[in-house]
């Protein structure tokens, strides 16, 4: 019997392969977490092992998870071309999910973040500072990550809601993982209450939109809204619904008037989880805001003006100014509050929480300008923020590991005894502060440029002065690191052989060291790489538009 | 093993720099050297090489850099002989009647080693070029840098390797600054200088107040430069280019009121560095708290960034605004000059007295920059150069005292001329040079600026400058009397005069102060062409 394939079968095969490719990270991560469940049941509970052995076991599991992440990343990287071919947008699962170039980049970004967060949690756990991590930690981390990946590719309100819930439920558990800490429990409960409230608001918004349009799919809604605009049809409940959805996303993101839970959640959660909170949900939520308000429902809010330049693609104007105004005012509030409230912080995690509020404020501010240039600025800002945040947490974990004492009070930073580590951290902080030749400057510059481009001169001036304020708290950290002598003297004798011996004696992860070196190099010598990053974000914004 | 590392780094740095220089051009080789040397020093320090070898390594490259800059100056002199006053390939007498594009072309021909590094999107274009004005400042930078590195063995007690690496980074940025021809790149370098200076003041500073001083330095400059950044953003968005030669055409493209606002923003950015009056508070603090070499760099080179920046990116770019706001600038100068001269009289700290005199001198130069006269602008640049050398000498002298007695209070000293004769004579030399006594460079700088200002017909300004000069003279001779004459203060014990390194270093500076005082043309010969061009843009 000759084996033949007809066209329908071929098509379905193609769809199958494409689906497999598009959802590779989610599938692999979910399956791997299932595997951990089995592994834990049959290996972990079966062996009556000491704490150290269990920690080593979890460390081994985390290493496997890291290899899995790397291999997904490599597969995606190897099939880059395939992906670019597939970058003609494809929809999956009855148009519930989308896979296009921006989603591809987003998934890669989330995978990079996951890789380094796994390295951080391994180091954190082996440093022995915390005793109660079980294998559940890894499972929930992976579940949260696949939730974020799904959020990034959601193209329907239903799938968006389900993905957000998957992500959020995992987050509540993750925040509570330091079981012997009251702060951790507080963080988890706060996160849970705010998250549940945000979900309710989101659902309410979705039902308003559904009530007005009878649709939940982004694409169909976009068509509906475009024709609605053409017919001068306005519906209060539609606008209200979209407003509520934005409020829910702002709650999840921790933008300024809705930011109260964020510092507590950051402070209470264990350090790798704090890193996770400040990376992965930011990426996915900011992207979904872009998707919803700049692209998906574009027709309603945005008028396409036909300027096609070599690099500036389209220029957008809001038809309804209130949404742009909402974005700008929320963004400005976040920048202002993040800059002011960060000044008085003594805890490095809380400080970073306020800094991340200010940073997401910058991104939303740029999105509110609704020009192609500003969108590009927001993308560049997001990319650079992710890189700097990874670098920051890697450094904090490394310090914690090396000095074996609490680094969370900023006055203890003066005890950093390695000049190289201190230098890397201060370069990172200067970069976050936006001092030039470092990358943080370029992201801020882009936002200023787009603000000036939109002729918001007063706003630019205010934001610039607020940035000076926020510079103060970063620079204060540098001053603590370098200016206050530690007990052992400021520059501990840094001899390479002895310190590498010390390095081997301690459970410092090599991925940690590599990450620090790589990201610091990127931070320092950005001139050569800058345009490549801009190109990525250009392509990104091109496909979003 | 460590010796091997030393020789390997020596060889590697030299050969990589030669490779860069021969692959691109002479200027690029010159500009790349300090960064390479900084990395070499970092490797050496982390590799545990002895401080002596670190000192030798840095001295070697500082000296090479100095020689490099002399060669560069000679090259520039040859270059300008062949290329001056070119319009459409012919020698022409330049007049204001020529079309602006011809003037710009001719101006472009004055730049030596024009190099542009375009990245993909032309967003940040790194472009370099050396004209006469840059030449002078490059010479000042490398000269003072060699001086600082040479005395670093005496003045830096801890972490010599990191300190010298930081110095090399600072000099790398300074040389970029003095040759950058793209406004954004210029700004990037301008602000990047904050990081190493902040660390230098904070880490190697001497007292508890140092972090306050470092913050003041950092945030004053950041405040000014944020305003400048917004101006740059406006220009980039509305004009589309930040290249120096494009910016010279800016005036006809941007409305006049916008030019005025941009002028004020950029002026504030540079005025913080000069420093002019409302923005001067950081300077005395930073000078007092910085280590000796930090003070030398601050007073010697970093204060010149403001003046250089104005001459490069303010006056030729906004000619109409700078003519119209001339009196505003003069007002700022008058207030700063008088205020700082009078306040200098009341100070108790040696470094503060010198710091306030720096404010006087720099604002003297600022008045010269805006006087729209060849002699005045040349005098302003000459005065920056001479003040760089003289204030470096003065801070060096104070550093010598501080190293011995750990005090900078004037009241602590007295009668040093009988116990430290060598020190007293070099201190006298620099005091005399600072107040402007004829054969030395201080006199020439004042007289050139004042001659230039006579065309400005602003009597109040000239009167203020004269009187501040007199107050300064009184103050410095009084200072010298209190420190070096009279009976020896009873607190002074364990006296030792200058050692060889210190003596040689001060002779090195004194030679240049005397030489350019006797022959100002050594500096001004490089300036004529570029400043004539700028004056033509102003017409």
Written description of the protein model:
- The complex is a heterodimer of chains A (545) and B (539).
- Chain A has 545 residues and is mainly α.
- Helix content of chain A is 75%, strand content 3%.
- Chain A contains 22 helices and four strands.
- In chain A, the strands form two sheets. Chain A has a two-stranded antiparallel sheet with strand order 1-2.
- In chain A, helix 12 (271-296) runs parallel beside helix 15 and helix 12 runs antiparallel to helix 16 (372-403).
- The model of chain A is unreliable at 296-321 and 489-505 (pLDDT under 50).
- Chain B has 539 residues and is mainly α.
- Chain B has 25 helices and four strands.
- A two-stranded antiparallel ribbon of chain B has the order 1-2.
- The longest helix of chain B is centred in the N-terminal third of the chain and has 33 residues, at 51-83.
- The model of chain B has no long low-confidence stretch (mean pLDDT 87).
- The chains are: A mainly alpha (545), B mainly alpha (539).
- The A-B interface holds A 311, 419-420, 426, 430, 435-437, 441, 445, 448-449, 451-453, 457, 460-461, 464-465, 467-468, 471-472, 475, 478-479, 482-483, 490-491, 493-496, 527-528, 530-532, 534-535 and B 46-48, 119-121, 123-124, 126, 158-159, 162, 187-189, 191-192, 194-195, 198-199, 202-203, 205, 210-211, 214-215, 218-219, 222-223, 226-227, 229-230, 233-234, 236-237.
Features:
heterodimer, A: 545 residues, mainly alpha, B: two-stranded antiparallel sheet, 4 strands, globular
Summarize the structure.
The complex is a heterodimer of chains A (545) and B (539). With 545 residues, chain A is mainly α.
Taken as a percent bin, the fraction of beta residues of chain A is under 5%
Task: Name the largest protein-protein interface in this structure.
Answer: A-B, 42 and 40 residues
Gyration radius of chain A (Cα, Å) is 23 Å
- Helix count from the secondary structure assignment of chain B: 25
How large, in whole angstroms, is the Cα Rg of chain B? Answer: 23 Å
Distance between the termini of chain A: 50 Å
């Amino acid at each position: 019997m000759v084996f033949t394939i007809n066209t329908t079968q071929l098509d379905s095969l193609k769809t199958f392969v494409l689906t497999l490719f598009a959802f590779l990270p989610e599938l692999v991560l979910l399956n791997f977490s299932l595997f951990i469940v089995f592994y834990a049941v049959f290996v972990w509970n079966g062996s009556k092992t000491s704490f150290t052995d269990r920690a080593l076991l979890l460390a081994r599991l985390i290493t496997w998870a890291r290899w899995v992440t790397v291999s997904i990343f490599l597969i995606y990287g190897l099939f880059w071309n395939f992906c670019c071919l597939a970058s003609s947008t494809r929809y999956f699962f009855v148009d519930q999910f989308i896979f296009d170039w921006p989603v591809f980049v987003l998934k890669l970004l989330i995978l990079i973040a996951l890789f380094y967060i796994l390295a951080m949690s391994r180091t954190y756990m082996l440093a022995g500072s915390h005793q109660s991590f079980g294998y559940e930690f890894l499972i929930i981390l992976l579940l949260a990550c696949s939730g974020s990946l799904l959020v990034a590719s959601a193209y329907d309100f239903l799938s968006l809601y389900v993905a957000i819930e998957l992500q959020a439920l995992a987050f509540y558990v993750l925040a509570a993982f330091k079981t012997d800490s009251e702060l951790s429990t507080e963080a988890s409960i706060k996160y849970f209450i705010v998250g549940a409230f945000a979900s309710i608001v989101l659902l309410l918004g979705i039902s308003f939109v559904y009530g007005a349009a009878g649709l939940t799919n982004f694409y169909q809604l976009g068509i509906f809204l475009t024709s609605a605009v053409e017919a001068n049809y306005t519906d209060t409940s539609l606008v209200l619904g979209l407003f509520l959805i934005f409020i829910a996303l702002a709650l999840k993101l921790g933008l300024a008037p809705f930011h109260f839970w964020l510092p507590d959640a950051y402070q209470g959660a264990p350090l790798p989880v704090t890193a996770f909170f400040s990376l992965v949900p930011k990426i996915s939520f900011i992207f979904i805001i872009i998707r919803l308000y700049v692209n998906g429902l574009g027709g309603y809010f945005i008028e396409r003006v036909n300027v096609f330049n070599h690099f500036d693609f389209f220029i957008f104007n809001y038809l309804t100014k209130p949404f742009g105004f909402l974005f700008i005012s929320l963004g400005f509030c976040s920048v202002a509050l993040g800059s002011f409230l960060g000044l008085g912080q003594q805890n490095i995690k809380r400080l970073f929480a306020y800094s991340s509020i200010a940073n997401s404020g910058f991104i939303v501010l740029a999105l509110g300008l609704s020009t192609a240039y500003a969108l590009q600025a927001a993308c560049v800002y997001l990319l650079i923020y992710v890189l700097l945040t990874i670098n920051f947490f890697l450094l904090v974990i490394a310090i914690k590991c090396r000095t074996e004492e609490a680094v969370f009070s900023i006055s203890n930073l003066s005890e950093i005894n390695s000049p190289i580590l201190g230098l890397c951290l201060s370069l990172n902080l200067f970069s976050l502060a936006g001092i030039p030749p470092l990358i943080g400057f370029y992201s801020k510059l882009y936002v200023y440029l787009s603000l000036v481009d939109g002729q918001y001169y007063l706003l630019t001036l205010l934001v610039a002065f607020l940035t000076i304020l926020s510079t103060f708290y970063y620079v204060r950290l540098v001053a603590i690191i370098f200016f206050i002598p530690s007990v052992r003297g400021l520059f501990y004798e840094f001899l390479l052989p002895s310190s590498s011996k010390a390095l081997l004696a301690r459970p410092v992860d090599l991925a940690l060291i590599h990450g620090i070196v790589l990201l610091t190099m990127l931070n320092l010598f950005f001139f050569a790489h800058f345009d490549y990053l801009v190109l990525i974000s250009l392509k990104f914004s091109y496909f979003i538009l | 093993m460590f010796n091997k590392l030393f020789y390997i780094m020596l060889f590697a740095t030299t050969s990589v720099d030669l490779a860069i220089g021969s692959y691109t051009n002479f200027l690029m080789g010159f500009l790349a050297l300090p960064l390479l040397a900084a990395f070499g020093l970092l490797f050496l320090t982390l590799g545990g090489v002895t401080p002596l070898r670190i000192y030798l390594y840095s001295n070697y490259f500082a000296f090479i850099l100095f020689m490099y800059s002399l060669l560069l100056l000679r090259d520039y002199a040859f270059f300008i002989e062949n290329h001056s006053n070119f319009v459409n390939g012919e020698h022409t007498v330049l007049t204001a009647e020529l079309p602006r594009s011809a003037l710009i072309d001719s101006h472009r021909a004055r730049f030596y080693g024009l190099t542009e590094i375009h990245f993909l999107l032309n967003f940040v274009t790194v472009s370099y070029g050396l004209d006469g004005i840059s030449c002078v400042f490059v010479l000042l930078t490398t000269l003072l840098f060699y001086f600082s590195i040479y005395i670093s063995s005496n003045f830096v007690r801890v972490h010599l390797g990191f300190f010298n690496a930081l110095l090399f980074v600072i000099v790398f940025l300074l040389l970029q600054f003095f040759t950058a021809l793209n406004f954004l790149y210029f700004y990037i370098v301008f602000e990047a200088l904050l990081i190493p200076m902040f660390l230098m003041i904070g880490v190697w500073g001497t007292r508890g107040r140092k972090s306050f001083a470092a913050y003041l330095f950092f945030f004053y400059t950041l405040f000014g430069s944020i305003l400048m950044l917004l101006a740059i953003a406006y220009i980039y968005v509305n004009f589309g280019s930040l290249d120096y030669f494009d910016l010279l055409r800016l005036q006809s493209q941007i409305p006049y009121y916008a030019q005025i606002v941009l002028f004020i923003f950029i002026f504030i950015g540079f005025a913080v560095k000069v420093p002019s009056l409302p923005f001067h508070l950081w300077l005395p603090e930073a000078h007092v708290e910085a280590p000796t070499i930090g003070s030398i760099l601050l007073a010697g080179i970093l204060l010149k960034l403001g003046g250089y920046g104005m001459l490069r990116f303010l006056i030729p770019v906004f000619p109409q605004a700078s003519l119209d706001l001339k009196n505003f600038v003069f007002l700022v100068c008058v207030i700063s000059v008088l205020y700082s001269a009078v306040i200098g009289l009341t100070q108790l700290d040696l470094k503060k007295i010198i710091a306030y005199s720096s404010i006087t001198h720099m604002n003297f130069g600022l008045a010269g920059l805006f006087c729209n006269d060849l002699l005045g602008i040349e005098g302003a640049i000459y005065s920056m150069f001479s003040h760089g050398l003289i204030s470096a000498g003065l801070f060096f002298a104070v550093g010598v005292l501080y190293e011995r007695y750990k005090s900078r209070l004037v009241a602590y000293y007295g009668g040093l001329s009988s116990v430290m004769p060598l020190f007293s004579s070099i201190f006298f030399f620099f005091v005399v040079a600072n107040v402007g006594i004829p054969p030395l460079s201080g006199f020439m700088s004042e007289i050139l600026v004042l001659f230039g200002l006579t065309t400005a017909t602003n009597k109040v300004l000239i009167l203020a400058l004269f009187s501040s000069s007199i107050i300064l003279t009184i103050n410095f001779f009084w200072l010298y009397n209190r420190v070096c004459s009279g009976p020896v203060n009873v607190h002074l014990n364990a006296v030792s005069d200058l050692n060889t390194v210190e003596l040689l270093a001060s002779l090195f500076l004194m030679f240049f102060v005397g030489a350019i005082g006797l022959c100002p043309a050594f500096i001004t010969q490089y300036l004529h062409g570029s400043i004539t061009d700028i004056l033509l843009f102003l017409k």
